Structure prediction request, 635 residues.
Amino acid sequence: MKHKTFFWFFLPTGLAMFLFIALPIVSVVIQSVYAPHEAVIIEVENCGPFGCTTETTIDQDATAAIREAQPLGRFVGLDIYLDRGHLAVNEIREAWATTESWSAFGDVLFNLPFYRAMAFTLTYVFVCTPALIALGLTIALAVNSLHRHLKGLAIFFSLLPMIVTPLIGSLILFWMIDSRGILGNFISYLADDPDLSLKASTPLMWISLIVYGIWSSAPFAFVVFYAGLQTLPQDQIEAAQIDGATRWEQVRYVVIPHLMPLVTFVALIQIMDNFKVLEPIIGFQAQAHATSLSWIIVNDLGGETRQLSAAATTSVMTIIGVAILLSPVLVRTWRDFQKGGH
Amino acid sequence: MASKAQRMPVGLKLATNGFIIFWLIIAAFPFFWTFWGSFKVELDFFSIADWTNALFGPNTETTHGAPFTGAGYEGAWIENEFWRNVLNTFIVCVFVVSISLTMGTLGGYALSRSGFRYVIWLLIIALIFRALPQVTLVAGYMLPFFEWNVWGIIPTAIIVLVAMNQPFTLWMLHSFFQNIPKELDESAKVDGCTQFQAFRHVIIPVMWPGVITTGLFSFLLAYNDFIVTSLLLSESNRTMIPEIAAFLGTTQTEGNVMFAVAAVVSATAPLFVLVMFFQRQIVSGLTAGAVKG
Prediction:
């Protein structure tokens, strides 16, 4: 294909990605180093019969004028990155100097929005991902041994938690674990505590969110592993059987090594997906107990006062986080192309 | 044909089947429970006294005279005009799917037929774009969209969703076109067709299976989107998902949770039908990326 033909074929999609993905990234980075203008304040002296008072008021015209002249705001460099809402460098330095024990330092850290969000996000990512891979693999092995008429039905129902809109899926679970819902009732019956409420306790809320994460993503792992099982080399299984391998040993030494590339694939995809966790926090109304970087951005952007600079800064930090998580995938893709798989 | 050695011992067979049943209950029960409960009143669906109230609906019977009631649906669809949001979702989905498939097939076809080095770079850039959380881009849209006065309207959301959808569409269709033999369009070109004519007359007739699979995922992306539609659409133009999120704020206080439950069930129904008819395509689409590497 000639360069020119390629250009015309690729133009629409390339233009769309350039305008709505590449440029916004640049725009977000620029916004993150600008803060909104402060209001221009003037002092007015009011002299009346009872003496003079000075009042400070906002000069609306001057404020509007400066906002008009420089719509981006004033350049502040990395200040927003370092402020309390983000990396909170000063607060941490102070806490480091003043707190006595690790747990006291941890408490301070947990009260800073960025670190609070990171604590939950990382726990979520690194608990959900291995758990959903294990669950997905077990389901795949079990479904694979079913009679073939039942397989289709089993796959249909297994797909539901993944296909359904994340917000809807989390709402459905949330209503069930509500203290008046069926699961909430059941749990408080098990715990023998009629006042038990998942919504009131941070650890229980984290567990519920993680359970949602596993529930909604295990089907993806299942489908990928199930497809991998269809290409399992039968002769290796037979050779293992002849050598006297038990069923478990066959799984351990033949099936799992065969599926290993797929396990890596699922793990990488899920780590990146779970890092952006947002909908369950909104659906479970869990913001008092758990937040994530995505949630902070949405919270800053929504509402009456749109805090663009703060949101842009969190966005850049999220992008950096994703870049770190993404680097192994990129190296792998690059190597595949080099091998001539293209 | 399973040999005798491969046949499972009875104990293992029971354990496996038990596990499958257990998993299927976990996977499917919440949906059936919510569907059943959406025809009850709040006191039954959220019952402190007795969980069986949600099954038989005694309070529903005293309020409405029957154990089932459509009051939640009536409240959501008519009183809160949920049908407007359904209509908006429909418009968004139709346009996002058709536009992004048109652009994606052209781009993906070009990528698969060009052997130059920049193809690899374009694909890697697309992969990076695909991995970016969508929410990080929204702050970048706000200022220009306000400036141009296009914030809050449906076409804006459609264009943004199409663009966000492109990286994935490109990857899917690129690997799909890769599997269509190059000889097909080469021979058409030997016969005097231009590249576009070859695409038009030779490739388009055979590309539908891949396009349908990719289209399903574009549809799911548009239908399930929460971030773009909730942050870039004004209140009057909301699609279903942000409207349901908004219901939560308002109905909880007014005691109309059942409206939200009914809306949730209404929004799940199309997805059920979709999985029922396109299960094979969804499974093959999910695994395509993995098997390809």
About this structure: The CA atoms of residues 156 and 292 of chain A lie 31 Å apart. The mean pLDDT of chain A is 87.
